[in-house]
Write a structure and sequence with these properties.
By secondary structure, the protein is of the alpha/beta class. It has 14 helices and 16 strands. The chain is globular and about 55 Å long.
Length: 370
């Protein structure tokens, strides 16, 4: 495989630097770590280069600055947008299209982002480029998990449940990143696919038993683009959805509602965001975990079956980076698949989960006759 040059925006951030380290370990890439502060990306590049022996450089770049990006991304083969600024995705994607390079992002599944990407989809196809969005594990994994199970069983029911916890006290976020995070929570879409139709309601909540040591937890629906596209690919599917656990009782039922209300008033928004992150650091647990379970039902050779795929790791940010690295390896290492797709629909499940397992993700699969 020819060496590819990959530029990672947000390269010194919580996801970007982990992704850079994983890609550097392969020895297959020249990496540019890009960010608004030159000193931070230089430091991240030097640390990863010393650890892995890979070639990395730090480049100052702002994901909202089109002219600056045109210069900074020149000569790259792929740009990864791993910043917290989902709103800048349209700028980064437009620059990638202009330069004729592939694009990948780890942003949440924003309706505004997808509208911007869909608007340039014909040009992406015309130029034979690969544009992959919604990378990471939420979104990113649910549709891939369902597609993996559907390769062996004709799935009719395929809900995916997730629970994760981050030690927020060890993480740092700039004011812009924190505000973007709260804005994305406010815009969350609680839609699920039930009886072959999409239903949007904040009452789309379920208890689910994640097994030891997490046990039973309440989850709420989180609509993501990769699942909206899935019923067209799996016409026998009558039910699917992504259900994710919250931050804990204090945050879910007191702090978060108050933050959402305060954030509606621009003068109060900075204070609301700062208070929300202070509460996360104060009232969430210090243990870290991430578990996703696809709890499926279907038919195989005329016999009813239950199938389950469980994916877990002890570091949510690391799982995000691992899933992103697995997708990037497919984008750069195999046959090109031009077009615009969410990660969960772009990846080859067999290849993708093989990469995840090789990078330390625990994957358990079971099938039983009903």
């Amino acid at each position: 495989m020819a060496r590819a040059t990959i530029a990672i925006l947000g390269g010194a951030g919580n996801t970007g630097r982990r992704l850079a380290r994983l890609l550097a370990r392969t020895g297959d890439y020249d990496l540019r770590l890009m960010g608004r502060t030159k000193a931070s990306v230089d430091d991240a590049a030097a640390r990863i280069a010393a650890e892995t022996g890979a070639t990395l450089v730090g480049v100052r770049a702002d994901s909202s600055d089109r002219a600056g990006l045109l210069a900074a991304l020149s000569g790259a083969d792929l740009v990864v947008s791993a910043t917290s600024s989902t709103g800048d995705a349209s700028v980064v994607a437009s620059v990638a299209l202009t330069l004729g390079i592939d694009y990948f992002d780890t942003h949440l599944s924003s309706a505004a982002k997808w509208r911007a990407l869909r608007a340039i989809e014909p040009d992406v196809l015309r130029h034979g480029l690969q544009f992959v969005s919604d990378g990471g594990f939420h979104p990113g994994l649910p549709a891939a998990m369902i597609r993996h199970l559907a390769s062996a069983v004709d799935l009719t029911h395929a809900p995916v449940y997730a629970s994760f916890n981050v030690d927020w006290s060890r993480l740092s976020f700039g004011p812009g990143a924190a505000e973007d995070f709260v804005s994305e929570l406010r815009e969350m879409d609680p839609s699920v696919f039930v009886e072959k139709r999409w239903m949007r309601s904040w009452r789309n909540a379920r208890d689910f038993d994640f097994g030891s040591p997490l046990g039973r937890r309440q989850t709420i629906a989180m609509g993501i683009e990769e699942l909206r596209c899935l019923p067209d690919r799996l016409p026998q599917l009558t039910e699917t959805g992504f259900y994710i656990g919250g931050f804990g009782l204090v945050i879910d039922y007191a702090v978060l509602p108050a933050t959402m209300l305060a954030a509606l008033l621009p003068p109060l928004r900075p204070l609301a965001v700062a208070g929300f992150f202070a509460a996360l650091k104060r009232w969430t647990r210090r243990e870290e975990w991430v578990v996703l379970v696809c709890d499926g039902r279907g038919v195989h050779k005329g016999k009813p079956m239950t199938v389950r795929l469980r994916v877990s790791h002890d570091d949510p940010y690391e799982l995000t980076a691992i899933a992103a690295a697995a997708c990037v390896r497919e984008m750069t290492g195999g046959a090109r698949r031009p077009g615009l797709l969410p990660q969960g629909l772009y990846v080859d499940p067999a290849v993708f989960f093989g990469h995840l397992k090789a990078m330390g993700v625990e994957i358990d699969e079971s099938t039983e006759l009903v």
